[in-house]
Amino acid sequence: MKRILFFLLVTFSLAFGASAQRYSANLDTVYTVHSIDQDRFKGVIADWNAADWAMLNPRPVIVDFYADWCQPCKRLEPILRRIAQHYNGEVDFYRINVDENSDIADVFQIRSIPFLLICPLEGEPKSVIGLYSEQEYIRVFNQALGR
């Protein structure tokens, strides 16, 4: 009986270890939406105070301006995570809380949220205001990014 229990325990441990290893390997390819503040925006995306817009990021960027109290913003968050997976690392996704970063919200004249800023590598940023379907966001993003 002890041998059977030992065998089952070893088998379970090996199976669980292999499963956990596969799961952790998949985490390396997970693309997500990163929270940043207005100072990090200047260092990663572009200096929003500069007279001319100049992208710093090597890939196009989509920035979600949100607030914790905003229900449509909360519904948008999982949609953006799925869209980040869809783009497979070809586009970087960020979030900025407008209540904590009012200076950048004023610069982009954000009066309604969710507010998405689409930053292609070339040209001026474009914006999308409101909550839409995942397919509609992908269509708009592709158009704005020249895809």
Give the tags.
single chain; 147 residues; alpha/beta; five-stranded mixed beta sheet; 5 helices
How would you explain this protein's 3D organization?
With 147 residues, the protein is α/β, with parallel strands linked by helices. Helix content is 46%, strand content 16%. It has five helices and five strands; from the N terminus they run αβαβαβαββα. It has a five-stranded mixed β-sheet with strand order 1-3-2-4-5, covered by helices on one side. A hairpin with a 6-residue loop joins strand 4 and strand 5. The longest helix is centred in the N-terminal third of the chain and has 26 residues, at 2-27. 23% of the residues are buried. Mean pLDDT is 83; it is low at 4-28.
Based on Cα principal axes, name the global outline. Answer: globular
Radius of gyration: 21 Å
The amount of helix comes to: 40-55%
In order across it, which strands form the biggest sheet?
1-3-2-4-5
Distance between the termini: 64 Å
Kindly state the mean pLDDT as a whole number? 83
Structural class: alpha/beta
Q: Give the SSE string.
A: HEHEHEHEEH
Largest beta-sheet characterization: 5 strands, mixed
* Relative strand content: 15-25%
Unreliable residue runs: 4-28
Extended strand count:
5
